[in-house]
TrEMBL record:
UniProt keyword Hydrolase present: no
Organism: Pinibacter soli
InterPro entries: DsbDN, DsbDN_sf
Domain of life: Bacteria
Signal sequence range: 1-20
Lineage: Bacteria, Pseudomonadati, Bacteroidota, Chitinophagia, Chitinophagales
Pfam families linked: DsbD_N (PF11412)
Protein known as: Protein-disulfide reductase DsbD family protein
Domain named Thiol:disulfide interchange protein DsbD N-terminal: residues: 28-146
Keyword line: Signal
Amino acid sequence: MKKIALFLVAALVTTLSLSAQSTTQVKWNFSSKKVADNTYEIHMTATINGNWHMYAQDGGDGPVSTSFTFTKNPLLTMDGKVKEVGKMKKVYEESFSSEVRYYEKSVDFVQTVKVKGKAKTNVAGKVEFMVCNDKECLPPADVDFKVAIGG
């Protein structure tokens, strides 16, 4: 019984440390920009280290695509989907046996939001992403964010 418990603890520590490695390969910056009355762009910018790449929101069959989950806020409405601004690469990856889409160095994800009235509030949520290089992929990671807007 002790061996099983020790194995489970070791497996959990390994999984957590590998997931943490993803967040060391990608640095996130979250900001807002007022673009019109009560309308803001939320910029979720990923800076990707070295020879790593991060998959697009439609990364293809195989890798975990980047995805955003926004916390419901009655003072906000999302205007369209998250847009990607960056140099996307489309390549066939042998490891996934399919064409994949990803970004190297950096990518800016932009979500337009509208604030109801003159309220000061936050856009909050979570981004899930996965990074690979030519030798390995790291487990998907989640990063929480909160950006102040309005007022």
